[in-house]
Amino acid sequence: MKRTIYAMMLALGLLSVNTSCTDYLDKSPLSDIEPTEPYKDFKNFQGFTEELYNCIPLMSTPDYHCCWNFGEEEYWQPTETRLLTYAIDQGNYWGWNDCYYSYFHTGAPGTTGTNRFDKGHLWGLSWYGIRKANMGLANLDLMQNATKEEKDLIAGQLYFFRGFYHFLLMQNWGGLPYIDKLIPADEVMRYKRLSYQETAEKAAEDFQKAADLLPVNWDKTVPGGKTAGNNNLRINKIMALSFLGKDLLYAGSPLMNEESKGTATYNEDYCKRAAHAFGEVLKLCDDTKMYELADSAHYSELFYTYNQNNKLPGLKETIFFENVNGDWAWNMANDFRPSSISGSGIKCYPTANYADYFGMANGKPIKDITKKDADNGYDPEYPFRNRDPRFYFDFVFDGMKCVKDGSKVQNNPDKQYASLYTGGTYRTATPSKDCFTGYMNLKFDNQYMNDWDGYRYGNKMVLSMIRLADVYLMYAEAVAQGYKSPTATSDNYTMNAVTAVNKIRERIGAGDIASEYLGNLDSFMGELRRERAVELAFEGHRWNDLRRWKLLDKAPYTQKKAVYFDRATDQSNDDRFADPKNGHVLNLREEVLLERKFSEKHYWFPFPKADVNIYADFKQNPGW
Fold first, then answer.
1. Local structure of 588: helix, strand or coil
2. Closest CA to 355 of 258, 278, 435
3. What one-character-per-residue DSSP string does 422-440 give?
4. C-alpha pair distances (Å), 373 with each of 378, 379, 509, 570
5. What does the mean pLDDT of the chain come to?
6. Interior/surface letters 203-226, b for 16+ CB within 10 angstroms, e for the rest
7. Which of the two residues, 455 and 203, has the higher pLDDT score?
8. What is the mean pLDDT of the segment spanning 518-541?
9. Which positions ≥6 away from 4 have C-beta within 8 Å?
10. HSE-CB for 434 with a 13 A CA cutoff
11. Mean of the pLDDT values across residues 390-395?
12. In angstroms, what CA-CA distances link 453 with 15, 65, 406, 407, 447?
């Protein structure tokens, strides 16, 4: 820890001294900056603060090939060992710092990363952001030429980012020393690791301070009015309250409650407090319309835009983005399609077991993918029929058209239309790279992402770290667990947990939670967890959800599966390709491609060995 912070301080120092004497003597005296200059007024201090936005992690596109989903939702080319997903599948959590393709690593000497401050290097940039926020807070009194509103805007952002970067670290590594002051270079580090809940309390204080100081809409402030229309990404009250709620819900979740109190159950008090924070968010959104759920007609624009002059996706639903400087890289486009139609790349496909979470249009889950079910209407001979509408937004399945012009693939239907049946071209042409699982990702790219149709370029894909749908679902979980009933409400918002989940389903045209799942808290939680899996699929939430629920090391969540089936001969290709949702299949089955061998130690990343060896009170995580 000490080396981590000192290394960042040294790097900043080197930036100021790494010039020759001649260069220094050649400078104009007017080019020297007084120590108080960055803090003297709002414009200068906001310039200082802007760098904190640049430290927000870039999860989706910091490298040529990027993995950010570490649950059971994706299966990557198994021969590619440079991916963090591969290391996690093997139980090697040291890979967070060693793997070439990892947005976590430190960038310290001796690791794969080349620069601690590169985009997406969550570990180094988070500590850097904490120090930067503390530096700003230590110098707030130097901001003399400013109004109270201007001072509040600066302070609110600084408090938010101090809490935010601590939260990013603790959700992956557990309880931390909470660094809430500017540490002198000569200070001997003796900061003990706090429990998770102790760390979360300090982050909650910072998030609450930020919420108290910041406006809902910067455009309606005097300083923000000068940049009206360009303030959407600036930290506001709703962002601060959203992260306050998330911080408290995580603190109240079974994994974190066990780390802090020794009991792997929900902590009711933390859940009630989380529900209150989320209730404030939802009231503000109702009253101001600052954030709204997207309608079903524009659902895909929540996740990517195509040829819209770099317009960000997310519409008015995204509350907080990952770092927005990344674009959907050409190599990443290759990764989501088989070599038959999309060149080289490291191939990544949704698992069949994850597709199974997407139940039926009537809202009911699929209990067994191989068995006909009269209750929900599922038929294994027509597995793509009448599914939850989001299934059709998120997956390419057998028979879907993937190349517009058949002449580009010599009018070969096995290349033009997704040949994902057993023995199909998409699954067998290049065995080391082609579609292992029987599904392809549609959520973040167009179905015509191939070598000919042009959809590789002009895409803008930015992940939402929190969007309004996520807030509704976290509110539902916090209310249900805080008050031990799916029909409970928070103390400040009238919507109950069931209604909050149904609101997300109804906007996309999926059926409400069936009545048989509302009789007790456990059955409701099963549907709520499934709803999070479906609505937030592939957005980087699943791994943290499975961890905080203490499900990561339990079957079936340890398994990654493929689906196999034959095309029935009673259906012509013309009929099948015209309406792939009604594709008739036989002999449908699933097989396990990989099963993770996890234990208790796999709930937390290990800290860098060099950091935990600095002083005895900074403990390594158990098992590492």
1. strand
2. 435
3. TT-HHHHSSTTTS-SSS-E
4. 5, 7, 21, 22
5. 92
6. bbbbbbbbbebbbbbbbebebbee
7. 203
8. 98
9. 106, 123, 124, 127, 608, 611
10. 18
11. 98
12. 46, 22, 11, 12, 10
Task: Name the pLDDT band for 26 (thresholds 50, 70, 90).
Answer: low
Residue 292, both tokens: 């709204």
DSSP string, 261-316: HS--S--HHHHHHHHHHHHHHHHHHHHH-SS-PPPGGGGGGGT-EESSTT--S-TT
What is the C-alpha separation between 453 and 401, in angstroms, rounded? 12
> Is the pLDDT confidence value at 24 over 70?
no
CA 492 to chain centre: 28
DSSP per-residue string spanning 115-131: -TTSTT-HHHHHHHHHH
| CA gap 383, 597 in Å, rounded | 30
Segment among 59-73, 80-94, 264-278, 347-361 with least mean pLDDT:
59-73
Q: In the predicted model, is pLDDT for residue 10 greater than 70?
A: no
Confidence of residue 3 (pLDDT cuts 50, 70, 90): very low
For the stretch 322-348, pLDDT in tens is: 998 767 767 777 899 999 999 889 999
The answer to whether the CB of 583 falls within 8 A of the CB of 571 is yes
Q: How far is CA 485 from the centre of its chain?
A: 28
In whole angstroms, give the CA distance from residue 569 to residue 574: 12
Residue 19: per-residue pLDDT? 36
Is the entire prediction scored with pTM above 0.85? Answer: yes
Q: Is the dihedral angle over the CA atoms 151, 154, 157, 159 positive or is it negative? A: negative
Span between the terminal Cα atoms of the chain, in Å: 17
* Furthest-apart CA atoms within the chain: distance in Å: 85
Burial 176-191 (b: 16+ CB within 10 A, else e): bbbbbeeeeeeeebeb
Provide the pLDDT for residue 17. 32
State the Cα–Cα distance between residues 305 and 309, nearest whole angstrom.
Answer: 9
Gap between the Cα atoms of 442 and 455, Å rounded: 12
Q: At what angle do helices 237-251 and 148-173 cross, to 10 degrees?
A: 30
Distance of CA 379 to the CA centre of its chain: 33
Structure tokens at 310: 């770099």
Mean pLDDT over residues 55-64, rounded?
Answer: 87
528 Cβ contact list (under 8 Å, min separation 6)? 473, 476, 477, 480, 497, 501
Cα–Cα distance, 573 to 550 (Å, whole number): 46
Task: Please give the angle made by the CA atoms of 586, 589 and 594, to the nearest 5 degrees.
Answer: 150
More confident call, 189 vs 391: 391
Distance between CA atoms of residues 240 and 99, nearest Å: 32
Q: Per mean pLDDT, which range of 135-144, 182-191, 403-412, 458-467 is the poorest?
A: 182-191
Is the Cα torsion angle 420, 426, 429, 430 positive or negative in sign? negative
CA atoms within 13 A on the CB side of 341: 37
The mean pLDDT of 246-271, rounded to a whole number, is 98
Question: How crowded is the C-beta side of 272, counted as CA atoms within 13 Å?
Answer: 8
- Cβ burial of 3 (10 Å; 0-12, 13-18, 19+) is middle
Place of tokens 């409701």: 524
Going from the C-alpha of 279 to that of each of 69, 138, 205, 275, the distances in angstroms are 29, 33, 18, 6
> What integer is the mean pLDDT of 56-61?
90
Q: Which two tokens stand for residue 29?
A: 């005296």
Give me the half-sphere count of Cα atoms (radius 13 Å) on the Cβ side of residue 530: 25
Look at the chain and count its residues.
624
What is the amino acid identity at position 349? Answer: Y
